[in-house]
């Protein structure tokens, strides 16, 4: 009998977890037929997206080659950008690295093309932390500013060159500003500058941090950021980043050497032309078992799909942690569907436990969990260890 082909589009956090889960659940055989796996991604390896701020701070490489993964044995990797899914003919169309268009047939298809980092309108200036190249541009810019500050005689201009605004105070804005403040202070010291002149402003449009949890979490986080040298400015958004300052929504002008945008994620815009049913927000429409409506054998999870718990109507957030749990369940769902058994349905992780971890630089972690209405906090070195574990688990490095 012919092999069955399982194609996974996207080797981000969720695509990788899906590949492993389906491989482990099926052991590569279903109903006496061998299951062949293909992972197709437009990039040459897995990008550790949660660590996108790292190349903006230091020189860390956040790409992991596919072959690094032990479960990748026997998996075919194709570098290409998928442009459309023809669910009638059960094939995808993609553009390879030479710009050629090709077709790839599938029996089972997992769409895990994720999200992209939201960009402000081009005339609003600054640099959005969208990918490793933008991160490197950010690093070069603040390094250059500090070098200029060394020979700057005007104290106000020197202070401006040593200041950064981070626009957007979600978890990525918090982590970016904390690590930047610590690293900029280190670099300032090594250049003979006064490290206490480093200013990292985190601009929040809200009245507090961490709207995902109770107020006291936001207050503790503000304190932790202040200890790293970050000043959070509330109820203020950056309206425009100019060459020497940012304009704020309350009319203030803040002199800074650089503005970095960290204003959240949006579903991958490439989905708009892929031929799959989408919500008005641009996420793939799936049922409670991640099956794409009207496309037999096609599943979608992760940031690119709208995943709702049928028992309480709660939609999952665009988070790697939630996507990894979806992937584990997807393995069981695919196996059940192939064997014609009833499949398990999605359950929102927040109906089991609320859990967030945030990194604030080496040995400075911040973990918050809530179960049965009880809040739990872990900070410092242990919080950092848990944070690192979550990053590594997210990219399947442990
Ligand atoms: C700075 C930052 C910090 C974050 N911190 C956290 C955190 O602390 N905790 C947390 O839970 N989440 C965090 N997130 C969110 C987390 O990164 C996402 O939820 C997660 O990456 C989603 O995984 P995914 O596989 O669905 O999508 P993605 O990671 O976006 O992966 C999609 C993959 O699909 C590929 N792809 C895209 N389009 C195509 C195409 N047309 N053809 C072929 N391949 C394609 C991409 O190259 C990529 O490899 C953070 C995100 C950012 C940016």
Describe this entry's structure for a reader:
This protein has 398 residues and is α/β, with parallel strands linked by helices. It starts with a strand and ends with a helix. It is globular and about 80 Å long. Strands 1, 2, 3, 6, 7, 8, 9 and 21 form an 8-stranded mixed β-sheet that branches. The chain has a 5-stranded parallel β-sheet with strand order 11-18-12-13-14. Helix content is 29%, strand content 28%. It has helices spanning 13-26, 54-57, 132-151, 155-161, 171-190, 215-228, 320-339, 380-394; strands at residues 4-9, 29-30, 33-41, 45-47, 63-65, 76-86, 91-96, 101-105, 108-111, 115-117, 127-128, 163-167, 199-203, 230-233, 238-241, 245-248, 253-255, 258-261, 265-267, 284-285, 298-300, 305-306, 354-359, 365-371, 374-379. The protein folds into 3 domains: 4-50 and 58-117 and 266-351, FAD/NAD(P)-binding domain, CATH 3.50.50.60; 122-263, FAD/NAD(P)-binding domain; 353-398, no CATH class. The protein is built from 8 helices and 25 strands. The longest helix has 20 residues, at 132-151. It binds flavin-adenine dinucleotide (FAD). Flavin-adenine dinucleotide (FAD) binds next to helix 1, strand 3, strand 6, strand 10 and helix 5.
